[in-house]
Automatic annotation (TrEMBL):
MF terms in GO: oxidoreductase activity, acting on the CH-OH group of donors, NAD or NADP as acceptor
Pfam families reported for this sequence: adh_short (PF00106)
Keywords assigned by UniProt, alphabetized: Oxidoreductase
The keyword Oxidoreductase appears for this protein: yes
Protein name: PksB
Entries under CDD domains matching the protein: SDR_c5 (cd05346)
Gene assigned in the entry: pksB
Source species of the chain: Dictyostelium discoideum (Social amoeba)
Transmembrane spans: none
Superkingdom of this protein's organism: Eukaryota
Family: Belongs to the short-chain dehydrogenases/reductases (SDR) family.
Length: 260
C-alpha cells in the first residue's frame, strides 16, 4: 500500500531519460519538488516544462551537471536556490556501460575512466555534497541505483560489474555510518530494464541495442520508479535496504528465457 509523500525536495541524477525521468514523474505528480540533473540540458528542460504543465504543485529545476566532475557538482549545488538546498531525497541514478570487451581488450583509458568516474565516483561525490545537510537535519533518504550485475557477474562486463559491486559496497557502508540517524539508504538493483542504456553501451548501434530485449518482456523505467517511490513512502521507522527486481523469465544476468 502506498502512502502519499509530498512537499519533499527530490534530487535525481541521470534524470534526462530512463529510470531518472520516471522517478521525476512519479515524485512530482505526488506534489514533490524536483531537481533534475543530467548532461543533456535540452532534455532536462523539456521534462521540466512537461512536469510544470501537469500542475502538480511542486517546483521543478533543471540543472546541467556531469557527475564525473567534482567541479560540475559543486557548481550545481552552489547555484541551487536557498529554498531548494535542503535535499530530502537523493536518487543517485546516473550511470552507464560502454562496450562488451574482455579484460584483455578494454580501452583502459576511455571506457574504464568513463564508467568508474560516473558510476562510482559520481555516486560518492554527489552523496558527499548532500549528506552533511541530511545529518545536520537528522533526516533524509538516499537511493543508489545499482544493478543485479553488481552481484551476478558475467564475462565481458568486468568494468560495469565492478562499478556496480562498488555501489553495493558503498550503500552498505553508508547505511552503517548513518545507523544512529533517521537517514535511510536503499540500494536499488534492477535486472533487464528497457531504456537507452544499451544504445549508449553499443555506441548508438540500434540493432545491437535491441538484442538484449528480444524475446522477453523487460522491465520498464516506470517499474523501477514505482519501487523507489514505494520505499520512500514507507513509515519513517521502516528502511528497505535492498530492492532486487527482475522481469519474469529472467533469473540472473545471463539466465533468461526468450520466446522465439
Amino acid at each position: 500500500m502506498f502512502r502519499k509523500i509530498s512537499n519533499k525536495i527530490v534530487l535525481i541524477t541521470g534524470a534526462s531519460s530512463g529510470i531518472g525521468e520516471s522517478c521525476a514523474k512519479i515524485f512530482h505528480q505526488n506534489g514533490n519538488h524536483i531537481i533534475l540533473c543530467g548532461r543533456r540540458v535540452d532534455r532536462l528542460n523539456k521534462l521540466r516544462d512537461q512536469l510544470i504543465a501537469n500542475n502538480s504543485g511542486g517546483k521543478v529545476l533543471a540543472c546541467q551537471v556531469d557527475v564525473s566532475s567534482m567541479e560540475s557538482i559543486d557548481k550545481m549545488i552552489n547555484e541551487l536556490p536557498e529554498d531548494m538546498k535542503s535535499i530530502d531525497i537523493l536518487i543517485n541514478n546516473a550511470g552507464l556501460s560502454l562496450g562488451m570487451d574482455s579484460v584483455s581488450e578494454i580501452d583502459a583509458k576511455n571506457d574504464l575512466d568513463s564508467v568508474i568516474d560516473t558510476n562510482v565516483k559520481g555516486v560518492f561525490r554527489v552523496t558527499r555534497k548532500i549528506l552533511p545537510n541530511m545529518i545536520q537535519r537528522n533526516s533524509g533518504y538516499i537511493f543508489n541505483v545499482s544493478s543485479i550485475a553488481g552481484s551476478m557477474f558475467y564475462p565481458n562486463g568486468s568494468i560495469y560489474c565492478a562499478s556496480k559491486a562498488a555501489v553495493n559496497a558503498f550503500s552498505d557502508v553508508l547505511r552503517k555510518e548513518v545507523v544512529s540517524t533517521k537517514i535511510r539508504v536503499t540500494n536499488v538493483c534492477p535486472g533487464l530494464v528497457e531504456t537507452e542504456f544499451s544504445l549508449v553501451r553499443f555506441n548508438g548501434d540500434a540493432d545491437k541495442a535491441k538484442k538484449p530485449y528480444n524475446g522477453i518482456v523487460a522491465l520498464t523505467p516506470d517499474d523501477i520508479a514505482d519501487n523507489i517511490y514505494y520505499c520512500a513512502s514507507r513509515p519513517d521507522h521502516v528502511q528497505i535496504t535492498t530492492i532486487e527486481t527482475m522481469a519474469n523469465n529472467q533469473a540472473s544476468t545471463r539466465d533468461i528465457y526468450r520466446e522465439q
